[in-house]
Amino acid sequence: MHIVSVNVGQESELNRIGGGKITTGINKVPISMAVSVGDLGFADDAVCDTKFHGGADQAVYLYRQEDYDYWSAALGREVAAGSFGENLTVAELPDPYLCVGDEIELPNVRLQVTAPRIPCSTLAAKMGDKLFPKKFIKAQLPGIYCRVLEPGRVQAGDAFTIAPYEGDRITTVEFFNDWLGKMSHDQLKRYLKVPIDIRSRQVMEQKMRAEI
Length: 212
Known about the structure:
27% helix, 212 residues, alpha+beta, 3-stranded antiparallel β-sheet, M1 Pyruvate Kinase, Domain 3, 13 strands
C-alpha cells in the first residue's frame, strides 16, 4: 500500500448546477514535494465550507486509485487523482476500504479512520453532472475521512500499513449505507461506541435524544 498522489487546492469558484457560483477547495492538484500535515489537515489546502467539511475529524480525505480506474471506465474518460477533492490518492487499500478506528501508519504521519465521504452539490458541480451524487452513492466507493493522530510530512510514494481497530468493526462502506438509510436505536448505539467523526456523532446523539 502506498500513496500515489498528494493533492492540495486553493480557494476557487465552480459553476453551480442550475446557476450561480460555489466557492470551494475541491479543485486539488498533485504536489511533487513533501507536504506538512497538521491536526486540521494539509498546509496550504483550502477548506471553504467549514460547516460540513474539514476540522480535526475530517482533516484528511483518502481515495483509492483503483476506484478512479472504475470511474474512468464508467464515465468513458480519465478521472485523474485529486478530482474528488481528496488529499491522498492511494493504491492497494483493502476492499471494502477500512473500518472506523483503523489507523493508517505512514513513515512520518499517523491517521485514524473516522467516516466515509457523503456526496454533495459541490461534487456534482465539480463533475458537471447533477446526477453524479446518485451515481456516487450507487457505486459505493465513498473514500475515507481521517483525523491526524501524529502530524508530520507526507509525499507521493510513501508506503503505509494498517493497524486494525480492536473494537467493533464497522467498515466505511457499511457506515456510508447506514448513514443514507434510517438507522435504528441499536445501530445508533453501535456507532456512538466507536471513534466516528464529531459531525456524525452530534447528529446521531440528537437522533438518540429524539427517541427518548
